[in-house]
């Protein structure tokens, strides 16, 4: 694949596309982009001098020599007409990512859960021990204030995204598979279809494959790690894990057993490759986390949590971690479902996971790339909840409902979802400050 000089990126504000945009820009390509609204990632791209349209602009595509697009772009997108008329080449995001890292020793992280945090940990550890990785990560890494690293290599870190089978474009040097839980069943059809895709991915890995304790071996040699002990003291966490015959201990400041498992996976792979464990053990303590991945803020006697959890397993593990770390706090889960298809597939599972909270607030479904449907709403979840709840709160409503949540008792306000629910966090900060 030879990418032309002038490229148009549709969906440039997406976390994956914005990293690709940065890399192409630094490689000398002339980039323009489209996205439907500004975001933290469009701001980063624009800071490089890349122009972004926030409405379809067919004239901009006329000036391009090729188009890269995300699955969120529909067949009705107005710029398609120009592209087809001119016969411009087009590529999906996953194809381009695989091309960009093809010359590197790529470390790929796959799995329904934990990809972003694990990839961020890999990126940080490599950087901290003196390597210079290229990294395309699906979240803003707090250590770098970016979702992209423009290292010199030879290592590259990427997420092997299962959506749209994008991971099957990659040919990694080594890989981690964190989980094979069913997701994106609108693409794979059945859990067996999901597992078959992971099996195909693993067969494309050239070297080591590290897997979690519940992941199948896929019929090939794997390195299996397992968390053996987890202790939390406020925000300081100590954990012990084992891989093969090696037992290791580490400390850091990210709460949650699932995050400790992510760290164990990253440490296992890098040590198995040949990097010094003691250096990585020291560096891990300085890992600052990822935007919207279990970000915990203490505001007086209350705690605000921002988390990207959008699958029942992720919600369950996040709420369990908060219960374990702050057992005396009342736990309120504010959840914005992500995608109509996922809500329909997992409605009862969502309700079971959310029922770990003391109270649930449900927001309308964030459609993302899917057309709306009146048959699938957040009510599919609420009808199975075992705890008190409020539904359905539009994100653009007034703050009356938010102020009614405030309690004199120490409380956790956990904002959960892969959409734009995080926009309400400043409002609850203001409410807490106003009513301490």
Query: What's the CATH architecture of the largest domain?
Result: 3-Layer(aba) Sandwich
Q: Main β-sheet, in a few words?
A: 9 strands, mixed
- List the strand order in the largest sheet: 8-7-9-6-10-11-12-13-14
Please tell me what the overall shape is: globular
* Relevant CATH superfamily of the largest domain: Mur-like, catalytic domain
Ranges where pLDDT stays below 50 over 5 or more residues in a row are none
Mean pLDDT across the residues is 89
What does this structure look like?
The protein has 15 helices and 20 strands. The protein is an alpha/beta fold. The chain has three domains: 87 residues, Rossmann fold (3-Layer(aba) Sandwich); 184 residues, 3-Layer(aba) Sandwich (UDP-N-acetylmuramoyl-L-alanine:D-glutamate ligase), CATH 3.40.1190; 140 residues, Protein-Tyrosine Phosphatase, Chain A (Alpha-Beta Complex), CATH 3.90.190. The protein has a nine-stranded mixed beta sheet with strand order 8-7-9-6-10-11-12-13-14, with helices on both faces. A six-stranded mixed beta sheet has the order 15-16-20-17-18-19, sandwiched between helices. It has a five-stranded parallel beta sheet with strand order 3-2-1-4-5. Strand 4, helix 4 and strand 5 form a beta-alpha-beta unit.
Lay out the secondary structure.
Layout: E1 6-10, H1 15-26, E2 30-34, H2 40-46, E3 51-53, H3 58-62, E4 66-69, H4 79-86, E5 90-92, H5 93-100, E6 105-110, H6 115-128, E7 134-141, E8 146-150, E9 155-160, E10 174-177, H7 185-188, H8 191-203, E11 209-211, E12 223-233, E13 236-243, E14 246-252, H9 257-273, H10 277-284, E15 295-299, E16 302-307, H11 312-325, E17 330-335, H12 340-354, E18 359-362, H13 379-382, E19 389-390, H14 400-405, E20 411-416, H15 425-434
Parallel strand pairs: 1-2, 1-4, 2-3, 4-5, 6-9, 6-10, 7-9, 10-11, 11-12, 16-20, 17-18, 17-20, 18-19
Antiparallel strand pairs: 7-8, 12-13, 13-14, 15-16
